[in-house]
Amino acid sequence: MSVDVGNLVKKYGKPLSEMLSIDLSKGDSAYAKWLLAAILYSRPLPEEAALGSFETLEHRGQVSPAAIEEAGREQIMRVLEKNGYTRYGSTVAGEIVDAFGDLLKRYDGKLSRLYDMSEDSKDLERRVRSLGKGLDPVAAFVFLRDMRAVWPKANPEPAPRVRELMNTLDIDDLKEYAREHDIDLIRLETALCRYTREEIVSQRASTEKKYRERYRPHAMR
Questions:
Q1: Which of 1, 104, 116, 195 is most buried as measured by Cβ atoms within 10 A of its Cβ?
Q2: pLDDT of residue 219
């Protein structure tokens, strides 16, 4: 596989929280927005679907734990489906509402409290992944990846697809690779994650197109 890591970082390395204008230095309100965005970005859909869904929810004021719980699954699902989550709308909406409801119940709605109660990096990742009925592993990775900037204990294990790409690129340790090549770690992780996502989305679109072309009814003569 011929992939230049430096070019990947240039093209895909901008942190998603930065793309969404989420300032993680502002504390819990920003943390909640980023967790919401991370869950949205965890599914293999075009980035526009996640971006549109987040912007709509933000415009509606449904980006805090309390507002999300009040909105409920059906409202969140309708927003997602309008923005392209036709296959995942119900599942992702349920994951969002369950996660933020659990955050309210266990940590008073504050991700900073979750962080302070975590003993170390592994405990932090465990607590994040155990929100609700269990966050998608990719969502937890995406969330903790950008949180490295403000949470010293944030040190997520690479998502399975990122690990596969690392193996292909002969990267054993992301931290070590970033240090040796003078690359920002968050941008390196972001680039690998976004690249694998784009590849999956492209492959699925190609497969679905071939399926439609093969099985669509023949035009009546």
A1: 195
A2: 47
Burial of 153 (0-12, 13-18, 19+ CB in 10 A): middle
User: Considering only CA atoms, which of 141, 203, 200, 182 is closest in space to residue 9?
Assistant: 182
Angle CA 126–12–81, to nearest 5: 65
- Only one residue has tokens 């690129």, namely 169
Per the CB < 8 A criterion, the answer to whether 30 and 24 are in contact is yes
Q: Could you tell me the domains of the chain?
A: 5-214 (1.10.340.30)
pTM above 0.85, yes or no: yes
Q: CA-CA distances (angstroms) from residue 51 to 9, 29, 54, 88? A: 20, 18, 5, 15
Dihedral (Cα; 44, 148, 134, 91), 10-degree rounding: -30
Quick one: 47 exposed, middle or buried, by C-beta within 10 A (0-12, 13-18, 19+)?
middle
The number of CA neighbours under 13 Å toward the Cβ of 114 is: 32
